[in-house]
Design brief:
Elements: E1 8-16, E2 22-27, H1 36-43, E3 57-59, E4 62-65, H2 67-74, E5 81-85, H3 88-105, E6 112-114, E7 121-122, H4 128-144, H5 152-164, E8 174-180, E9 189-196, E10 203-204, H6 215-218, H7 227-239, E11 254-257, H8 259-275, E12 279-281, H9 286-289, E13 295-302, E14 314-322, E15 325-327, H10 329-338, E16 342-345, E17 348-351, H11 354-370, H12 374-379, H13 382-387, E18 403-407, H14 409-420, H15 439-453, E19 458-460, H16 468-481, E20 489-493, H17 498-508, E21 514-517, H18 525-535, E22 539-543, H19 544-549, H20 551-555, E23 558-564, H21 576-581, E24 585-592, H22 601-611, H23 619-632, H24 636-646, E25 650-651, E26 667-674, H25 678-697, H26 700-719, H27 721-725, H28 732-737, H29 740-754, E27 759-763, H30 766-780, E28 786-787, H31 793-804, E29 810-814, H32 815-818, E30 829-832, H33 839-846, E31 858-865, H34 869-881, H35 885-890, H36 899-906
Parallel strand pairs: 1-5, 8-12, 13-18, 19-24, 19-25, 20-22, 20-23, 21-22, 23-24, 26-31, 27-29, 27-30, 28-29, 30-31
Antiparallel strand pairs: 1-2, 2-4, 3-4, 6-7, 8-9, 9-10, 9-11, 13-14, 14-15, 16-17
Helix pairs in contact: 2-3, 2-4, 3-4, 5-7, 10-11, 15-16, 16-17, 23-24, 25-26, 29-30
Domain Helicase C-terminal: 741-906
Protein name: Superfamily II DNA or RNA helicase, SNF2 family
Domain Helicase ATP-binding: 449-614
Length: 909
Amino acid sequence: MKPLTLNREISLKVSESPDGRFLFAGFDPSGDFIGSRPLKELLFFSHTRSYMGLLIEDKDGAVRAGSREIVESFGDPHPFVRYVGRSEEDEQWISTFKEAASIYGEPGLPRILGAPGGSLQVAEQVSEGAARLLGQVFEEILEEGGIGQDRLDDVIRFRRLEASETPDAPLPFRMALRLSEPVEDDGLWMLESTLVNPKTGSHWTPAISKSAQPPSESLPKKWKPYAGSVARMQSRIRTVLSGDYSSDNTTFIALPLEDHEVRSFLKDDLPLLQALDIDVILPGWLREAAERRVRVRASASAGSSGNARLEDALSFNWSFSLGGSEIPAERFQRLVQEKREFIRSGDEWFRLDAAWLARIREMMETAEKSGWTVKDLLFRDLEEELGAVSSRPDDEEQDDPLFDFLLQHSLKDAVERIRSKEGIPETPVPDRLHAELRPYQQKGFDWLVFMREHGFGAVLADDMGLGKTVQLIATLLHARESGLAESPSLIICPTSVIGNWQKELQRFAPDHPVLVHYGPGRLRDDGLEDALASLGNGLVLTTYGTFMQDHEELTAKEWDAVALDEAQNIKNMQTKQSRAVRKLRGRHHIALTGTPIENRLAELWAIFDFIHRGYLGRFAEFQEEFIGPIERDGSEKQMQRLRAKISPFLLRRTKSDPALKLNLPDKLEENEFVPLTEEQAALYEGYISETKASLLEAEGFRRRGIILKMLSRLKQLCNHPALFLKEPFGEPDEMLARSKKLERIMTLTADIVDRGEQVLIFTQYIGMGELIRHCLSNLYDIEAPFLTGSMPKGRRDRLVEEFQNGGFPVFILSLKAGGTGLNLTAANHVLHADRWWNPAVENQATDRAYRIGQDRFVHVRKFVTIGTIEEKIDRMITEKAALSADLIQSGAWITELTDEELNDLFAIG
C-alpha cells in the first residue's frame, strides 16, 4: 500500500446497503486501494461526533457510515483532498452528498420546509436523491434516541436554529441540562441549565438573585463574551422541550417539575436531547430507580380448620415493603391515591410506577369483592391474574419478584393434589363391577370420582388399550350404587365402536340398565320419555350420528353424567354436531380420547369447551393467545401456560411411560366390535335366504364347498359391500360411510401414525387390501405398500427392509403371503381386518411383529362385525378351544358343523 500524500485526488467507490447505510472504498490516482483507516481519517477529519472517524465502522477494508455522518462530514470536508467518483454512478453519489450537505448547513435551512404529517418536505429545486438522503439523516436522529416521527418538527426547528449560528471562538465550558430531586418529600423537581468546566468538572448555575437576568448579566465576568452563544443554545433547547413550560426565553432555563412532568421529560425529551448531542445530567440514583419499587406480598388462606376444601372462600393478607423496609398499608394507599412516582425512604429515593400500583389496588379490591374460592384457583387464572401485576417480563427470572403470591400450607396442598393427581382418596371398587382394576386403572377411577365430587369435568386421555372404558364404567357404577346418580347418564361414541361398548357393558356391568339408542327402530318422543323414566339412573348409549339426528330431544334433558368416547369427534368446533354436543347438560362431563390432544390445539379447545363451557374462552381468543404463538412461532412460554391451564382436568398415561410401572403383558389381543350398516344388513339377509336352502340339501364334499364359499362371500360383505358386489371403488368418504369396519380401521391407523408408531394390517382379500390403500392415500396422504403372493421376492425383501428402517408407517399384507417368514418388529400394532377360522393362522401373522427383537408392547386388534359369522366364529373358537385345541388349530371343524350349528352361524343378529 503506497503512502498517502495530500493535495491529491481520491476516487471513491460508493454503494448503498439495504439498511440505508453507505460503503466507501478509496483509491489513489494510480488506482491503488488506500485502506479503511486512512480513508476514515480524511473523510471524517473534522467530524467531532465520531471522534474524527474513530467510531466509524470498518467492513472488509471499506468504510461504512450512516447518512447523518456522511452529510455532516461532506459539509465540512478536508481542505486538501478532492473526491471524485470511480464511475458515473459514484460521481452522482458524491454530487448528492455535497448537495445534501449544503442544504443541511444553510443558515435557517430555507430549503427544508418542515414535516407535515411526520414526513420531511423540501423545496422543489432539491434533487430527489438529496431529499431522500436528508430524510434518512433526520430518521437516524430520531432512531438514535428511539423517538417517534411526531418529533421530527422539533428536530428540524432545533437544526434550523443551530445552522443559523455563526461559530464563535471555542467555548471554555460546555452547556448541559441538570435535573435535581426535590429538597422536601413533597417538593418539586428542578430542570435547569448548567455550565460544566471540562477541566475541573464543576457545575455553574446563576445565583438565585440573578436567575431572572439574561446571560449577558448573570454570567461571570470571564464568560460574558460568550453570552450570545449561551442564549442561542438555550433557545434551541427550549424548542424541543415538550412540556408546557412558561419561561422567559432570555433567561437561564430553570423549570420546576412535578412527578408526572419528570416522567414525561425522561420518556419524551431526554432521548431527543441526547440524540441532538445535548448533555443531560441526572441524579445518580435515578438511573437505578427503575429497579427499586414497592414490593407486594399477598398470602392466601382458606378455612379455619386447616383443611382447605374447594368451596372455601379465599382470604388475603397483604404486606408492602420499600427498599427492604416494611411500609404500612395506609401509606401504600396514600401513595396510590396521590399518584406519586418518586418518594424518599430514609436517605434513598425510589421511583414508583403509578399505573402498576393502581393495578395492585384494583386487584386487592377485586379479591375482596369477588369472593374467590379455592376452586377458583384451579378453574380461573387467578395465579396468572395475580402474577400479571409483575412490572416487567424479566421479573419472572428474579429471585425477589416485585409481587409475591403465597398460599397457606393446607391450601397449597389441596391445589397441588388436584394438579399433581397425587394423594387423591381411594374409592372402593363397585360391587357390581365384574373386573379387577389394574393399579393405574384404580387411580384413574379414583380421579374420575374425585373430579365428580368436586364439580370438575374430566378428560381421560389414556393411550389406546389401557382401559378407558372399564374406568368410565366403574365410575358410572359407583355413582349409581352410592346413590349420587338421580337420573340416567349418556354415552356418545362413534358408530364403529358402539358394538364394543355393548360388549364391554355386558362384560363388566351386566346388571347396569342400558338403553341402546341407535338404529331405525330406536324410541322417539313419548316412547323415549317412558323408557328413560323406567331406566332410572341407568345408562343411554348412542352414536354421534344418532345424537345429531335426535339432538333437540337429548340436549333438552338434564343428565347425571355425559361422556364422549373418541371425543376428538367434536374437534371441528364450527360443525353443527360439535356445537350441539357442547350444549349437553350433565352433572359431570367426561371426555375419553386416546389421542395426545395437547398437541392438537383446536381439538383441545373443543373438548375443554365440552367439559367446562367457556373455560378456554372464545375460540378466536384462544387462537390468538395460544394457537398462533404455539403453532406458528413455537412459543414454549405459551405452551407451558396452556399445559398449566389444562393439567388439573386432564389425565393422560401412555403405555411407554416407565414411571407408571404398568406391568402390562408383552402383547394385548382384543376384539374390535363394529356393526353392520343398513346396506350390509340387507345384503346379508338376502344372500342367506338365497343360498341356505341349497346348503341344507347338500351333502359331503359339495356341502363343504358351499360352506366355504358362503363364509368367504359373507366375510367380504362384512368388510365392505363393494367387495361383495364387485363394484369399483368410489370416493373415500362415500366408501367409509358404507362400512363401519373400514371407518374404524382408518381412524385407528391414522391415530397410530400420528403417534409416530408403525402398524401391520392383515387381510385375506386382495380387494380389501387395495380398498384400505385407496382410503389411506386419499384421506390421510399415507402411502401404504400391499404385500401379496404375486410380489417378486426382491421387491418383497426391499419393502421389509425399508419398513424395518422406518421408511413408511403402514404395511398392508395378505394373510397367506405375509403371515409367515417375515421379521417386522418395527411395528408394535397389528390389525386383523377380517377373521380366519383357524386361530393358528392369525397367531402366525401376529408373530411377524411379536417375535425375538421386539422390545415394545404389541397391541393386536381383531375386527369382528356384530351379529354376523365373524362374531359367531369368534365365540365358537373360544368355546371349542377349551375342548380340543388340536381340532381348532386344524381348521377342519368349520365344515363339520351340524345343520343346527350352521343355522345359528349364518343367521344375522
